[in-house]
């Protein structure tokens, strides 16, 4: 049956409410068969992209359908996308024309900017530019206004009927809206029952922007794609086997996939499920002969867990904790915000019942969540954690973060505004709670024990960043550091064991995290040797300070790129005037302010260069120009901006003395 429900785009263009996705489909036979099946089934909304490398195949299929008279051009809605290496004002038209040539069309119905950032373009390969390590090379800061003007020109030229965005956040959309002559008609983002992105959808609907959901079924085949490109597989939400969805599917005599698709359609979102199996292609379009009732919608809305759906696995935690207890761990660290207290509680209950361990044998730590940092809510969340853990008490209860988020009683989580930004409490009443300090020596002097999280610098943290769609970080690799490895060899231990033992000998309790049974066992075998004074001295010398911080809390939306001092034109101009380098100018500026500068470099030439700053003086004009470069908190490297708007909080920045 043909889908007869539409979303109306600005200007009155109708977009079928269900599309056919073609991501990761570039096998000619496979795409041809599945697309023919889709068109036969009644799909009239086809989604592709230049980077999918299947536009030519799709173009050939469409040409055959047009020639046969079974389909007219105006009967079908075609979307394609500007590739990441086309996100530059000089390349928009070029790639628009390339896509039209591939598709054998005069126009597309919707042309999207695929990503809100640009990759450098390699003309020799026609693809993205990479360095000698195979790493993608990025353009500078994206000029969204300039890109959008070029997108508007594609509408003016008749190459695209409408234009839109893909994978943009609210802030980036707002930037485009401010200068847009033709407003974005559509936003395409990942949306499914586990990742509902309510604030983003509401924002789009309020601004007249239609929404298309890619990955509407949680992409059951995504790990095959990761494997194909040589990337590690990921823990992804399994929509098709979820018991709540299964129950609703049974009620309506539908499949779980059909329920997930129908849920999005009833939210006013156009899903574009991808399948190369003709039976599923047909099944996915049969979602217009039933309606989910209010009870169904409520249950499905309650499945929203956002990004956490991709990091939490009950079986994994159960296995890891059992292995840890078998290995002899007796100190378990968790938090209400980790959303695993119930799983831990179930494991502990089994161990207590078996008689293998008594409550008094274990040391359990949990933490007051950020939305519990208020005098009226401490007891409430303490009791919630005890209920989850199935315990009468915990051995240590910590305040997770030294500022409070407003509490949403309807969801039981932190309150967010219409933009999806977290809402902060006012100034934290430290007297009513308890003031925290972070310095180890201060804590020890005051009788406060210290626990170290990320004691191995979190080797898996970049996986978390990738899962959240964030840029990975260059972090010091403790496990492959030559000094750590040398000491490990000396003691016949692993680098991880050396890192943990170092903390223990400093009087710090370490809480390493691993879900690998072998490593869980390995991490506890650190009490049968002692690091000598020489070992400790060498390990202390590895301290590189904030550069090595894993948890810098700059993980949510917002511009995180820092100003580049060494490339700044003002600094460069002054450097040229004094026949110095930009680095020397930056250092001299601090020295003339009465500040001792401590630059770090491992390059002998730069080490020498950095000290040659006492043979010249910056004049008043130089100093004035350099002072004008101050952009405040935006330039802070370690600014703890985990949450949008934290800089407005009265207790921020809480790391300052």
From TrEMBL:
- Look up the signal peptide feature and give its range: none
One MF annotation (Gene Ontology) recorded for this entry:
oxidoreductase activity
Q: Which PANTHER family match?
A: ALDO/KETO REDUCTASE (PTHR11732)
Identify the keywords attached in UniProt to this record, alphabetized: NADP, Oxidoreductase
Q: Which PROSITE patterns match?
A: ALDOKETO_REDUCTASE_1 (PS00798), ALDOKETO_REDUCTASE_2 (PS00062)
NADP-dependent oxidoreductase domain location: 18-303, 306-403, 435-542, 567-630
Q: Does the keyword Repressor apply?
A: no
Q: Which SUPFAM superfamilies does the entry link to?
A: NAD(P)-linked oxidoreductase (SSF51430)
Which Pfam families has this protein been placed in?
Aldo_ket_red
Q: Which family does it belong to?
A: Belongs to the aldo/keto reductase family.
Q: Domain of life here?
A: Eukaryota
Q: What is this protein called in UniProt? A: NADP-dependent oxidoreductase domain-containing protein
